[in-house]
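Review this today:
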Amino acid sequence: MIIKEYVKAFEKHGFGMFVHFGLYSVCGKGEWAKHLLHIPDEAYEKTMEIFNPDPDWAKELVLTAKKAGCKYITLTTRHHDGFSLYDTLGLNEYDAPHSACKRDLVREFVDACNEEGIVPFFYHTLLDWREESYKTDFKKYLTYLRRSIEILCSQYGKIGGLWFDGMWDKPNEDWEEDALYGLIRKYQPEAMIINNTGLNALGALGHIELDSVTFERGKPAPINLENSPKYIASEMCEIFADHWGYASRDYHFKSLSQMIEELCLCRRYGSNFLLNVGPMGNGALRPLDKAMLETLGEWVAMHDEALRLPRPCAITVENDADDFLLEKDGTYYLFRHHLPMSADPNVAIGSAGASETQFCMPKKICSIQWLDDGSDVEFTQDGERVKVISKPFTYGNSLVVRIAKITTEKTGL
């Protein structure tokens, strides 16, 4: 099996930010507003006259991603409405340089990423609601699409990858994938190529050039690579509320604890977690999005060493289906869920005592310590049989998932 180093490097990112940003951000009704609300072309495209993100939108976005613990950002350079955040160099005038801002927003994004050591990725739609050839002359449209991708691959320096979406709109058409992916390899030989399988084909393998499968708002799972000639990564994308693009009246937010649990679930199966935000029309994040990301970043910072390099291992935790172990070079990380908080019963619901975790470890354990405060964890080991005693969170702490570092002797039992 062929293993590409850039694919392994992608897996080490662990956590990234997805950004849906475009003319729909001005509308404030979600990224599919034009299509689902039947907004006429003329009315929708008038938003170009007021689309003028703040000068520091990209810098602020990247800094927020960095505080959250993200190592890469995937930006919608063009979404299904056909509007491009980059200079299309004459392909059409439906782009950011021809809007009120008169700037190449992808350039600003890439520059901000490079300044902060964040890897830029480009989302690009495959379907197009505006381009007439998409409906009338599909082969002509594919030429237009490839010319668009060529600009992204050749004008912005080295990028982390391209994330495609929309092939599911014409499942029986020949999308000429060989030509599309070959073009990318010409300019960006080490770019991740990802093509979203949508909501209904989670984790499905595709064209041989694809480097990662996707799980859109679905639980990741191990990938069956038995018949694959190359190693393939995986990534799960998720949203805070119900819309990928900014929607001013979307209050259906998921909890921070759910985001922590989903991040951990992704790492359990070696998947990256790509968490979406939808900036407002001025490019700024709404306060709740920013607060959620920064608070999540506090948790990530406490557990960072367990979230990047360690990989899934064959050791199974026996008494809690949500708990699991990751391993790197003989060091293991135990992810503990459902720990209660120690408190007076008049203060906290469900306060309880210590809980026991059991598994078989083929190496002698030297020590176990919680990553969040460095304190020792009580354990016993009888041969390979290990029991870990986890005390409740002390009052004033409730971390959702707690991770313990297990140091072992190199020689085994």
User: Anything to note?
Assistant: Residues 287-307 form the longest helix (21 residues). The two ends are 32 Å apart (CA to CA). The chain has a mean pLDDT of 94. The domain at 311-408 is CATH 2.60.40.1180 (Immunoglobulin-like).
